């Protein structure tokens, strides 16, 4: 099976309107920049996007919000995106806010083939409405369902043509779990190498989970919020 594609447009060729997407990244750290740009260009609408947050107003998933291509966000943080906040408050955007640990675990469970799990997060709050609750050893827990997607789109530091991926430091974030939770996983990498060139013990996601891979270009790698300390 040849997994290698020439660019983001070729890798995302069959993504259509109404699709559910998982997009790796934490804020702006490790986001699939090339793929997001290709989705904007493709013009698909009615997307449900699963991501930690929605980037900022002019970068990351904020670009898809700006063009009204996202119908629903499943995320844990509204964050630094004023347009995200505006669309949420005005009712233009459907938003499912999920506690961050719960979001991460729901994705992990999907990748592991576990349909549901129990967590104490959200007990007694609006998050608990409509969910099964059980008590274990005197403590209340909510049942949360595994979270799947039609496509998972991640960005890695290095990858080989078999789909094995290595992430650099904090860019690993949600991506390693998301890569295992989509029906089709698409990876963009900064450097694409031949099989055998990656140290086996350094691989974070095995190629068996990745269906398509391409080498990206022109990464900005913006910093969401720069903080400095006066000397």
UniProtKB/TrEMBL annotation:
Keywords: Transferase. GO terms for molecular function: succinyl-CoA:3-oxo-acid CoA-transferase activity. InterPro entries: 3-oxoacid_CoA-transf_A, CoA_trans_fam_I, NagB/RpiA_transferase-like. Coiled coil: none annotated. NCBIfam families: pcaI_scoA_fam (TIGR02429). PANTHER family: KETOACID-COENZYME A TRANSFERASE, SUCCINYL-COA:3-KETOACID-COENZYME A TRANSFERASE. This is Succinyl-CoA--3-ketoacid-CoA transferase. It comes from Filimonas zeae.
């Amino acid at each position: 099976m040849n997994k290698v594609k020439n660019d983001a447009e070729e890798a995302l060729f069959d993504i259509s309107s109404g699709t559910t997407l998982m997009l790796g990244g934490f804020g702006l750290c490790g986001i699939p920049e090339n793929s997001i740009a290709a989705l904007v260009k493709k013009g698909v609408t009615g997307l449900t996007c699963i991501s930690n947050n929605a980037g900022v107003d002019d970068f990351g998933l904020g670009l898809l919000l700006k063009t009204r291509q996202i119908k629903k966000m499943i995320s844990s943080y509204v964050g630094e995106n004023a347009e995200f906040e505006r669309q949420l408050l005005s009712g233009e955007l459907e938003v499912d806010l999920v506690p961050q640990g719960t979001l991460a675990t729901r994705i992990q469970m999907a990748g592991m083939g576990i349909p549901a799990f129990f967590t104490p997060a959200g007990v007694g709050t609006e998050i608990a409405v409509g969910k099964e609750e059980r008590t274990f050893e005197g403590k209340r827990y909510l049942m949360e369902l595994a979270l799947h997607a039609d496509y998972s789109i991640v960005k890695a530091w290095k990858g080989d043509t078999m789909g094995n991926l290595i992430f650099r430091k904090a860019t690993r974030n949600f991506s390693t779990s998301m890569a295992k939770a989509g029906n089709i996983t698409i990876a963009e990498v900064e450097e694409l190498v031949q099989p055998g060139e990656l140290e086996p013990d350094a691989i974070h996601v095995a190629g068996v989970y990745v269906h398509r891979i391409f080498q990206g270009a022109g990464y900005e790698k913006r910093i969401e919020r720069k903080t400095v300390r006066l000397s």
